[in-house]
Write a structure and sequence with these properties.
By secondary structure, this protein is of the alpha/beta class. It folds into 2 domains: 2-96, Nucleotidyltransferase, domain 5; 113-278, Nucleotidyltransferase, domain 5. It has helices at 38-54, 84-93, 104-113, 145-148, 154-166, 174-182, 186-194, 199-204, 207-211, 218-234, 251-255, 257-265, 278-286, and strands at residues 2-7, 11-18, 21-29, 63-68, 98-103, 118-123, 127-132, 137-139, 246-249, 273-275. The strands form 2 sheets. The protein has a 5-stranded mixed β-sheet with strand order 3-2-1-4-5, sandwiched between helices. Strands 8-7-6-9-10 form a 5-stranded mixed β-sheet.
């Protein structure tokens, strides 16, 4: 049996499956191996295993694959230094299992490209990308995060819109509708963006409301198209998009795939695949 763990800062997805068994998915809080104490990591693992057992998936695992940001082992190491506490926990619980630790970027590449070479375009709350040779990531144009990058992502769209809104550049009645819906004010926005715990998530949360008005507002259409276009201009064009297929993974890109594909056609790109989550592609990759 196989267990795939895809861990982010705010949530972790655990997917178990085996021969003749449909995949079982549970979710827990995020696992930050750099900051969480070992007992908190162990408690999260116990919770996930209990949830899987409650769904009828009890027993050991032959293979475990753990994906998270920054999981890159030094040459000759099986376990990255930041994951040693998790490795002790998993080894104690599943002593017969073979455990792989890999970065979330490699996970996205495997999910988007499978076992073939290609370009993985990650478009969710944030964005990232890489060139994948079928086994490993060979190039990464750095994301830069929601302040310096994240072109194409939901948080960047929210940032662009909010900047215009605060400066009085969002046309009426769109600006009025936005203020009535969210009741935002300048100090609240500044506090959430500059001192909040999750500014990217905060800005990204406005994206669905904005995109609902794509067809009715020329302003939104221009803003959304430009956000996606910047991803192609500033990121994907740095790869050889004429030679490599492009796969997309991420909830924001999937939700607005028709618009994304329309903008991509300006660059002669037809996506090999567009999937909403990394886990969906990883199950296929490891099956």
């Amino acid at each position: 049996m196989t267990l795939i763990i895809d861990s982010g800062a705010t949530k972790t997805e655990w997917c178990a499956y085996g021969a003749g068994r449909s995949p079982v998915l549970v979710k827990t809080g995020g696992i930050n191996l750099a900051t969480m104490p070992e007992d908190a990591v162990e408690a999260t693992v116990r919770q996930a295993i209990a949830d899987l057992e409650n769904k009828g998936f009890a027993g050991g695992f032959d293979d475990i694959h753990f994906y998270a940001a920054g999981l890159i082992a030094a040459e000759g190491e099986r376990v990255p230094s930041v994951a040693k506490c998790l490795d002790r926990i998993l080894e104690a619980r599943f002593p017969a299992a073979s455990v792989e630790y890999a970065s979330d970027l490699l996970g996205a590449a495997r999910a988007a490209c499978g076992h073939e070479p290609g370009i993985a375009a990650i478009i969710g709350t944030g964005s990232n990308s890489c060139l994948f040779d079928g086994e490993k990531v060979v190039r990464n144009v750095r994301s830069g995060g929601f302040i310096l990058g994240d072109e194409g992502g939901a948080a960047r769209l929210g940032r662009l819109f909010m900047s215009d809104f605060l400066k009085g550049l969002v046309p009426e009645p769109l600006a009025y509708d936005f203020s009535e819906t969210f009741q935002v004010d300048y100090m609240t926005v500044v506090a959430n963006v500059y001192r909040g715990e999750a500014p990217s998530k905060y800005l990204g949360a406005f994206a669905p409301w904005i995109m609902e008005r794509y067809s009715s507002s020329e302003y939104v259409k221009s803003l959304a198209d430009s956000n996606f276009r910047d991803f192609f201009e500033r990121v994907l064009k740095q790869y050889d998009i004429a030679r490599h297929p492009v796969g997309v993974v991420g909830g924001f890109g999937f939700a607005y795939k028709d618009i994304l594909q329309k903008v991509a056609s300006e660059y002669g790109i037809e996506f090999k695949t567009i999937i909403p989550s990394t886990m969906e592609g990883l199950v296929r990759y490891h099956d």
